[in-house]
Structure formats: C-alpha cells, structure tokens
Amino acid sequence: MKIKNKLRLGLGTLFFLILALGLIAAKHVYILKEDTENILADNYKTLDYAQRMLLAVDEINTNSKAWEIFGQNLAKQKNNVTEVGEAEATQKVQDHFELLKAAPRNSTLPGLIRKDLSELAQINMRAIQKKSDIAVGSVRSAMVGIVLTATLSILIALTLLINLPSNIGNPIRELTESIREIAAKNYSQRLHFSGKDEFGQLASSFNSMAEKLEEYDSSNLSQILMEKKRTEALINNMHEPVIGLDENKNILFANNEAVKITGMSLGDMLGKSAVDLAVQNDLIRVLIQEKQGHHNGINSNSATPSLKIYADNKESYFEKEVVDITIIPTGERLKKFIGQVILLKNITPFKELDFAKTNFIATVSHELKTPISSIKMSLQLLESQQTGALNEEQKQLMESIKEDSNRLLKITGELLNMSQVETGNIQLNIQQSSPYAIMQYALDAVKLPMEQKEIELVVETDENLLDVKADMEKTAWVLINFLTNAIRYSQQEGRLVIELRDDDKAVKFSVRDEGKGIDSRYRNKIFDRYFQVPGSSKTGTGLGLAISKEFIEAQGGAIGVTSEIGMGSTFYFELAKA
Ligand code: ADP
C-alpha cells in the first residue's frame, strides 16, 4: 500500500473512531436525559399531585379552597396516567372524592382517599425505581460501548504511533546511507525495499541508477586499463629506450630497451627516485642531467652531444631528448608540469656511416694531396722558364691551373683537417706564441688576394701584448680563414680591420669587414659543418668556420661572431695568455 494511502487509512480510522466515540457518548447521554425527563414528567408530577391532594384532604373541613385544589390536582392527575394500574388507582381516588363531596361529614372517606393516594404514589415510586434501574443499565452499556471504542482507538493510535514513524523514517535513513555510499564510489550499494509503495518505487529507481553508475564505472576502468596496457605495449615495443619521470623525478615507467641499457631490473627502477639511482648508475646520472638553459625555454641549436652506451653487444651511440610533459588540469587555466619523458634515439647506424664517410674523405684527400702537390711543382717548373718561354695565352692558362690547384689544395687540406677533427685526432702543438707573429703570418698568407681586391687593411693592436698559449700553425690557419672569408665577402676596394686586444686573461683576435653581414637566423649555424648561408658564394666547402671552432676550442679558447645584415661582420676568437 502507498505511504499516502497508509497515512490516509491510519488517520482516517482514528478520525472515525473519535467520531464514533463522540456519537456513542452523545447517544447515551441523550437516552439518560430522556429517561430522567420521563421520570420527571410521568412520575414526579403524579407524586406532586398526590401530595397536594393529600394536603387538601387534610384541610377539607377547615379550608374552603381545599375542595377546589383537590379537584384541580385530580384533573391534572387524570391527564398524567402513565403506568400500569395508575388509571384504576386514579379512578378509585375520584370515586371516593365524589362520595366525599356527597357526604362531607363522612369520616371514613378521607381515610380511604388517603389510602388511594398512597397506592397511587406507590405505583409511581415503583415506576421511578424501575426507570432508574433501566437508566443504570443504559449507563452501563454506554460505558461498555465507550470503553470498547476508546480501547480500539487507543490500540490503533498506538499501532500508528509505533509503526508510522519507523515506516517512513527507516527507508529515508537507509536511502540517506545508500546515497552516501554512492557518493563514496561504492556503486554496488542497493536498496531492498519490497512493496509497491513510494519507497518501493524510489528503491527501484535508485537501484537502476546505482547499476548504471557501476556499469559506467567498470566500463571506464576497463577502458582505462585497456588503454594503459596498449600504451605500455607500445612503449615496450619501441626499439629506442624510453623512461618516464614524474614531477619529482621518480621513475614512472621504463621500457625493455631502457631497462637493458641501464643494466638494472625494472623492479629496481619503478617508483624509485632517479636522483637516488643516479648515485650508483652512471647512465641514469647522464640521462637526468639537465641541459643548460633547458628550463628557461632556450632552445639552443647546438647539436646535443651523443651518448656512448654499450648496447646490442657493441658500443652504441644515442641522442638524448627530454620532453617536458605539461597538462591543464580540469577546471583550471594554468599549465601544470607533471613530469618528463626521456627518449634515447639510437644513432649508431648514422655514426657508423659518419665514420665511414670521414675515413673515406681522409683517405681520398690524403691521396689527392700528392698529385696536387706534383701539379704545383710542375707549374713552378713551367714558371721558371727553364722549360721554355710561355706565350701570353699559355701564361693565362697556367695562372688558372695554379688557382684551381691552390683551391684544390685548400679544399683537400680542409677535408683532411675536418677528418682529423671528426676522428678526434687533432694534434696540437701548443707553445708560447706571440699574437703579433700569428697575425703577421696570417696577413702574409692573404696578401695576394687582398691586393687583387684592393682591400684597405687597418691593423689596430694593443701594445706589449703577452704571448698566448697556442698552436701557432692552427691558430694562424683560423685567422687566415677569417681573413679570406672577410676578403671574399667584402666589396672591391673594401675596408678590413684586424685587431689584437688585451682582454683580461686572454688576447682577443678579431677581423671586421664591411661586407653584406650575416642574417641573425644563420648566425648560430655558420659554425656547423658543411653549412653555407643560402645564396652565398658556392666556391667554399662550408667547413672553414667549423674547423676554426674545433681548433680554437681544442686550445681552450672561445670563438664567435657579431654581425648585422648590411653592416658587415666581426669574427673573433680569444686565447688564454701564456
Ligand atoms: P666557406 O668555405 O663556405 O666560406 P665557412 O665555414 O668559412 O665556409 O663559412 C660558412 C658560411 O658563413 C659561408 O658560406 C658564408 O655564407 C658565411 N660567412 C663566413 N664569413 C663571412 C663574412 N665575413 N661575411 C659574410 N658571410 C660570411
């Protein structure tokens, strides 16, 4: 039954019981009133008339009005005959009163009248007694009726009092607890209200809601687990080592390759702090080493040095890439750093190819050097005129062969130097060298091309410069490279400034030209191997500045450029004083 109907029934029953109680009580009170009124009307009045007639009989000889009073009361009594035998008794009183009226001196008749009146009173007294008994009886039955109805009402009220609050309160409490459980993600919670009342309907709606939530939750979970497995499988199947760190540098995951190269077990890595592991594991230390400027967002173009790691049963080369992982948490606007992924790119095949290329270049350039040198020697012989005079045309041809063989020699020299640099075989002969001597050596070497282009040379040097710690030949080579570039990129009759400056603990060599300058986009790249600014002269190899950098850095110096497009360039290097 529905709660609404239960309440209606309970309260309705109570209402009807109270109504019944009231009606029963009212009915019995009414009956009692009727009884009392009957006694008063039927019997009390007769007694009153009889009393008055008795008094009138006593005064019959002394009071002249007594006859009249008697007659009046007798008449009234005749109209108030209500009991069995009362009519006969009243008739007797009347008969004797008639006789007394005819013989007023008769002394026995008053006595007879008194007796008659007494009999009349007796009849009515008995009637009063009987009616009183009846009234007592109806009071009793009224009492029984009222007590019964009251007991029934009390019983029903008690039942309602005990059952109704728990009938309504218990399901509400259970519902509250279940909602709390659902809020705590216990989606297996169910309500077990039987019946078809409102709570039954509520329970079935609640249960279907919980079931759907449970289904959604478990499907979501299994989906997430599936995705997790898929991602793990993907990472594990990658041929390159991958390690994931959280924001506190604790290791979240590492794929098989990563486990292999670190030489640790996965169990020893997962959940551990990479900083702690770095203490005992060199590779992890290198992996978590931050690149300078990494967190300032500076993305330097300089190539990341490759890592040499023993993997795949041989020395392998890897390039490290650290990717910062950031997310925007739900409901927030700011990005949050949640960790890093360290990727190692296996560049061993490229390295092997690179070695092969370097060896090849070294061999070829070495092999080319001898024939080129003999070409140059033959040219010198031709020039010395011992072999006969040359006509103008032959001289021009010889000049161009000389130029080409010089260029060839320069290129083979650069390639040889480069292969030395790449194989790490730079042979340095560091001595105390005079900066002035280095400068003079370089200037002598570029004298001819400078004259050819009618370049104005300005030399600005600080006086009494101390010697520098340098490989004289290689440093001069760098300066010559700066000067030939400056001449090449200067206008005809341009101006070139060479400076030697005292720079605290070092001496700064610089070459300034007024040529076309270098676009800022390429300024970092010109020191890379084989790089040439797009659109520049194609005669070079793009190796000069790369070799210069290697030479200077191998001597512990620093190299750089400042340039403004259209305003010329200044190339410089610094070497420590001896
Ligand atoms: P290359 O043999 O091609 O000159 P370098 O390594 O010496 O190779 O120079 C690399 C590039 O730098 C050149 O291609 C050129 O575009 C640029 N460069 C070098 N020096 C200058 C300069 N003084 N003015 C303008 N550009 C220059």
UniProtKB/TrEMBL annotation:
Pfam families: HAMP (PF00672), HATPase_c (PF02518), HisKA (PF00512), PAS (PF00989). It comes from the Bacteria. Residues 227-275 form the PAS domain. It is found in: Membrane. One of its GO terms (molecular function) is kinase activity. InterPro entries: BphY/WalK/GraS-like (IPR050351), HAMP_dom (IPR003660), HATPase_C_sf (IPR036890), HATPase_dom (IPR003594), His_kinase_dom (IPR005467), HisK_dim/P_dom (IPR003661), HisK_dim/P_sf (IPR036097), PAS (IPR000014). SUPFAM superfamilies: ATPase domain of HSP90 chaperone/DNA topoisomerase II/histidine kinase, HAMP domain-like, Homodimeric domain of signal transducing histidine kinase, PYP-like sensor domain (PAS domain). The keyword Heme does not apply. Its EC number is 2.7.13.3. Residues 166-218 form the HAMP domain. The chain crosses the membrane at residues 142-164. Residues 363-578 form the Histidine kinase domain. It catalyses: ATP + protein L-histidine = ADP + protein N-phospho-L-histidine. It is a multi-pass membrane protein. NCBIfam families: sensory_box. This is histidine kinase. It comes from Dyadobacter arcticus.
